[in-house]
Design a protein that fits this description.
By secondary structure, the chain is an alpha/beta fold. The chain folds into two domains: 218 residues, 3-Layer(aba) Sandwich (Rossmann fold), CATH 3.40.50.1100; 95 residues, 3-Layer(aba) Sandwich (Rossmann fold), CATH 3.40.50. The protein contains 14 helices and ten strands. α6 links the parallel β4 and β5. The structure holds pyridoxal-5'-phosphate (PLP). Pyridoxal-5'-phosphate binds next to α9.
Length: 339
């Protein structure tokens, strides 16, 4: 019944070996003291491209046949997904095109250009960039790499769960950032195949939690975007969602929401106590534990720190005064995708 079988995760792992990194799983005694339990952090901020998205991108690109690889792939995203697709494509020798709108900040354009992808800056909004991407896709026969709603992408993200199982087979609970749901679906498939009683908890921001609202409505619903520190969690799940909505509904035990202040405090906490630089989206799991919204069960609780791509200015503002932080609308123009 399930769209993603555990063996597809092992297949993905073989495919992406040597392209992406195996990231550290480290204990966080400070967070464990506050939350009351054995808490470990899975540090995807140290992943190639600074976020777990490199796993899904590598898995999706490896799954393409030779002709599709030779013709190339296309992505619409200025954030972690675009960067992952562009970087991994470069490593695998697959031509990549990334479409962004003219509103995207200069430093993001420069970072994308540095990957060697073909960068198309077009239109005045994400929607216009996307329309152009579809046209290019059809005209040139390119393959679109979706940020989450694709079995190969979900299997790629699930390789993170396989690593957790190997290093901490005693894991009883996983706390996972949640937007489109590709990450949590992959991790849940991995962990629940080993033991269905492992709790998998999703964490989103209070400001525009598309999956949480869709779960409540019983179907994918459009959710207006709001500025948030967790900019990588912005965006909808797609009104024609094919995979992740059902997987999340089936496999995720609970979804909790965190405030902007809690996200800021978590970023600061991770820096002070664990010496990790996390972006807002990467810190929502820590935020949920610090707030007491999740109580760790007996045994190990693994918190997925999904990414570290935060601008220096935004990070400094959080460190200077986590209580006073306003959401930093970097990359958060209305209509910007989750990735
Ligand atoms: C994309 C992203 C997420 C959310 O992943 P989904 O698969 O869309 O749920 C979480 N954290 C970071 C850093 C991301 O880039």
């Amino acid at each position: 019944m399930q769209a993603i079988a555990q063996r597809s995760l092992y297949r993905a792992r073989r495919a992406i070996e040597g392209v992406v990194r195996r990231t550290p799983l480290v204990a966080s005694p400070a967070l464990g003291r506050v939350a009351g339990g054995d808490v470990r952090l899975k540090l995807e901020n140290l992943q190639l491209t600074g976020a777990f998205k490199a796993r899904g991108a590598a898995s999706a690109l490896s799954a393409l046949d030779e002709r599709a690889r030779a013709t190339g792939v296309i992505a619409v995203s200025t954030g972690n997904h675009g960067r992952a697709v562009a970087t991994v494509a470069g490593r695998l020798g697959v031509p990549a095109t990334v479409c962004v709108s003219g509103r995207v900040p200069r430093h993001k354009i420069e970072a994308l250009r540095a990957t060697g992808c073909e960068l198309v800056v077009v239109g005045d909004s994400q929607d216009e960039a996307e329309a152009h991407a579809r046209e290019l896709m059809e005209r040139r026969g390119l393959t679109l790499v979706h940020p989450f709603d694709d079995p190969a992408v979900i299997a790629g993200q699930g390789t993170l769960g396989l690593e957790v199982l190997e290093e901490a087979p005693e894991v009883r609970c996983a706390v996972v950032p949640l937007s489109g749901g590709g990450l949590i679906a992959g991790v849940a498939v991995a962990l629940k195949a080993a033991d269905p009683a492992v709790r998998v908890i999703g964490v989103s921001m209070e400001r525009g939690p598309a999956m949480a609202r869709s779960l409540r409505a019983g179907r994918p619903v459009a959710t207006p975007e709001e500025a948030t520190l967790a900019d990588s969690l912005q965006g909808g799940i797609g009104e024609r969602n094919r995979y992740t909505f059902d997987l999340v509904r089936e496999l995720v035990d609970e979804v909790v929401l965190v405030s902007e202040a809690a996200i800021a405090r978590a970023m600061r906490f991770a820096f002070e106590h664990d010496r990790q630089v996390l972006e807002g989206a990467g810190a929502v799991g820590i935020a949920a534990l610090l707030e007491g919204a999740i109580r760790p069960p007996e045994g190990a609780t693994v918190v997925v720190c999904s990414g570290g791509n935060v601008g220096a200015d935004a990070f400094l503002r959080v460190l200077a005064d986590a209580e006073a932080v306003d959401p930093v609308p970097i990359g958060s123009a209305p209509g910007t995708g989750p990735a």
